[in-house]
Amino acid sequence: MKIYTALSEITEPIANPFVTIGNFDGVHLGHQMLFSEVMSRAYRNHGTSVAVTFNPHPLKVVRPDIGIKLISNCEQKRELIEHAGLDVLIIIPFTREFAATSAVDFVDKVLIGTIGLKELVVGYDYAFGKGRQGDINFLKKQGELKNFPVTVVEPYYVNGVIASSTKVRELVSAGRMREVKELLGRFYQIRGEVKTGKRRGGAELGFPTANLHISEEDLCPRHGVYVTQVIYDGKCYGGVLNIGYNPTFGDERLSAETHIFDFNQDIYGKPIKINLLQFLRAEQKFSGPRELAGQIAEDIRQAREVLAVAQKEIILSCEEKYNS
Q: What is the rounded distance in angstroms from the CA atom of residue 257 to the CA atom of residue 301?
């Protein structure tokens, strides 16, 4: 996939581009339907499938007071869009100056003038431009005037729920990870470099942990304990994760501490990815390290059971796939 991180990098129009535009936060199943539609149309017409997105999220610039919590950072979004199979990704830096661009100028100068738009595919609720002037009706009229077809992709439902970034954020905040997976089509993931923590996990509790710092500005799952898959150096390990403030020890900094099963490597300063499979219990305060260690042992027992069932589901799914 060819990636442009500024419009100035596009020195000539893209060859026969079929374009979709959006913030694509989380790249959930609704977004994936958009990508499938764009790629299908581009393939049938010997064109180039293009996704246009923005960094940072426009609401962080035009409405910083809202404090929007993002499902995925720009790096994750880029990876997920590339995995979807599009030919080109254009990441437009979103500034206050760019926010003042009118909907007509965006169509004329960006979509047509810079990208060379041939056909546009958008979600049912998409709008852009200063004051969100560029809604679906506006786009269809522009398409008629300037000779580019506009296809609107209807909402995608999962068990009666619309796959939307807003709904995913709501479910993540509630710790409802199984429902999150249904809307994303994959497990919700946090990632980062392993930081040096209080070093209590091994010394005081007998369960060493890999610690990630979580910013208060980021989307944070419900505080508590989760069953996880930890991805490090291309390998996947089971684990249990605690997100919160460690009330037993009176910590004041929000952190994510993961005990990785069957793992003894030194990974301080190394990047890891953590998939959250299932919420086990809320964070709670214990009388001391001994009681906490006992609860962690029970958390690990339950987590191993969950992971064993998940592994059986994967194996059965593969058997059904290849035996059907």
A: 17
